[in-house]
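Before the break, one more example. Copy the sequence into your notebook; we will annotate it together after we see the structure.
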Amino acid sequence: MFYYILALFVLGLDQVTKWMIVKNMHYGESITVIENVFYITSHRNRGAAFGILQNQMWFFIIITIAVIFAVIYYMQKHAKHQPLLRLALGLVLGGATGNFLDRIIRKEVVDFLDVKIGSYNYPIFNVADSALVIGVILIFIQTLMESKSKKENMNGAHRS
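Here is what the structure looks like once it is written out:
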């Protein structure tokens, strides 16, 4: 149950921050948080990560519905005794739902976290994107840990 509450928290934080940006900033307006590093910039995205697949709204809606159902199914059937995986899936569920709501309600995703590293300007993102990325990284870590554990179990079984 904690993982669904986490997903709801991510969803709520994502939607509140996006609402604040839409209500308080003009499109393209930028507020410096840390000079030459971090800005709050009002931006909109009609595509996916890094602005790819612009204006493919139905594609994203269908894919996101499939992802949401798959995550819920996987949490219920396969991740019951894997807390790291359930945490990761809770983050993915909250993030996917946050951007899904934007696409349904606004017909675009509100982005505002703007990071610059040296001369590189990272694509502007939001709370949902952050949760998705962290969730996917945790899934990758979980997969590596499982793979290592299975390998160690196989090696131990061969030694006996």
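Strands lie at 30-34, 38-45, 109-117, 120-121. The mean pLDDT is 89. Try to locate both features in your own notes.
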